[in-house]
Amino acid sequence: MTQTVPELKFHDGNSIDQLGYGVWQVPDAEAEIVVGKAIDAGYRHIDTARIYGNEEGVGRAIAATDVPREELFITTKVWNSDQGYEKTLLAADASLERLGLEYVDLYLIHWLQPKRGTYVDTWKALIQLQKDGKAKSIGVCNFTIEALEELYAETGVRPVINQVETHPYFPQNELRAYEAEHGILHESWSPLGQGGDLLTDPVLVKIAEKHNASVAQVVIAWHLAVGNVVIPKSVTDSRIIENFASLNVTLDDEDLAAIATLDRGPEGRIAADPATADFA
């Protein structure tokens, strides 16, 4: 069966494939190979970042594919040490050069870094990048409700998306409700809980058995069902294909209610808290 990836609309009029392919922790040389395989499997949305060190590899995969550029959706991000208005503009140009692209479809601020106080100026740079055609759409990662409010208060422009840690143990219900109210899409990183206890959770195992699916497929299907954009990462051929086939898994209300019971609140967070995180 050929899977059709749902598209979600940004408030700026552009759209994003709800299921994408992430390349966090993938070495540059390997990125070229696995991104090519992901494109062959059906992915058109590829998510990278300057700090991943693999923009060049992603760019080589883009150059090598027969899929037209306009059918691909490429995301990259400005890293913390590059924040600030002028530095962000330079960082974006450097990312485009490494990717071998004239524009990215989505450019994101990677972390809030609240103690540094540069995120508003960085956001103003992203607004300029969009005006200049170097980024079709602009958004953020790891932003709190308060920071999202501040960006809008200072510039009158809301991010189209906020990419944050999200999985059934940490579903980000309050943040997602705020975003939905203000037309901001929610994107999940570490959507599989970084392969920890989540993938052996008895509730998810039972649902997977019911659907004749893997637990990873059930978790990805959950993200899709609740409206998240999701970017699972794998460097294994079979799992790249398996993750994409999550599009064939349709969860019912009973499944979604059972998964909702897995919410651990703040205790479910695996990575750093954006409200306090401060690292170069």
UniProtKB/TrEMBL annotation:
Sites where the protein binds substrate: 110
Active site: 52 (proton donor)
Molecular function as annotated in GO: oxidoreductase activity, acting on the CH-OH group of donors, NAD or NADP as acceptor
SUPFAM superfamilies per record: NAD(P)-linked oxidoreductase
PANTHER family: 2,5-DIKETO-D-GLUCONIC ACID REDUCTASE, NADP-DEPENDENT OXIDOREDUCTASE DOMAIN-CONTAINING PROTEIN
Annotated ranges, domain NADP-dependent oxidoreductase: 19-262
Family: Belongs to the aldo/keto reductase family.
Pfam families: Aldo_ket_red
Key words of the record: NADP, Oxidoreductase
UniProt keyword Oxidoreductase present: yes
Site residues by UniProt (Lowers pKa of active site Tyr): 77
Domain of life: Bacteria
Originating species: Glutamicibacter uratoxydans
Protein name: Oxidoreductase
InterPro entries, A to Z: AKR (IPR020471), Aldo/ket_reductase_CS (IPR018170), NAD(P)_OxRdtase_dom_sf (IPR036812), NADP_OxRdtase_dom (IPR023210)
Keyword Oxidoreductase among record annotations: yes
